Amino acid sequence: MHFPSRPSARPWRRLLGVAIALPLLTVGSVAAPESAAAPDSGITVEGRYHPAGTGCHGSDNADGCLSWGVRVPSTVAPNASTTVTIEADSVPGQWTWSCPSPDGDRVAGTSAFYIDKGKDEPASKLADSGLGFFDHLYYNHHGDSAGSVTAASCTPEHLSLTYEVDFATSNQSSYLDLDLGTTMVAPGADARSYTFNPKITTSAAGLVLTPTATAHKPAASAAHATVSTKEVAVDGAAKDTSRFTMTARNDSTTPLSDFTVSAGRTRGQAQVTALTCDLTAFGGKVASATGPAESLKVSSGAAKVPQGKEVTCQVDLTGVVGRNRVKAALTTGDQTFSSDYAKDRPVSEVKVQSTDSGVEAASTGTYEVKVGHTITFTNTTDANGQTSNIVLHPRVPAGFTLKYVWGSGVPWWISTDDYEIQPDGSIPLSTSDTLYANSSTTMTFTSTYQINTEAVTEETWKALGTCDPKDPSKGLTMQIDVAGSEGGTEAGTHTICIPVTRTGN
Question: In order of start, what are the domains of the chain with their CATH numbers?
Answer without folding.
Answer: 11-217 (no CATH), 225-345 (2.60.40.2430), 348-502 (2.60.40.10)
